[in-house]
Design brief:
Blueprint lengths: L6 H14 L10 H13 L4 H4 L6 H12 L3
């Protein structure tokens, strides 16, 4: 059985991994912030406001929320 992942879902996966990456300082997150995002993602698959709450920069947080709420 082949599972197709949409281009939008691929983009979301890439962005999510980038946000929590140890090598990414773009979002000015501490390691604890990144771990909290991971913990929240494991508890809720779609409450993006709550998941990305640890992102301190409001503009970047809103950009992430908008992307992750987008459907194809």
């Amino acid at each position: 059985m082949e599972v197709k992942i949409s281009e939008l879902d691929q983009l979301k996966n890439l962005v999510y991994v980038s946000v929590i990456s140890a090598n990414n300082d773009e979002f000015d997150l501490t390691e604890d912030d990144k771990q909290e995002i991971i913990r929240r993602k494991n508890l809720s698959d779609d409450d993006w406001e709550w998941i990305f709450e640890p992102v301190k920069d409001g503009n970047k947080r809103e950009m992430l929320i908008e992307l992750f709420k987008k459907d194809e």
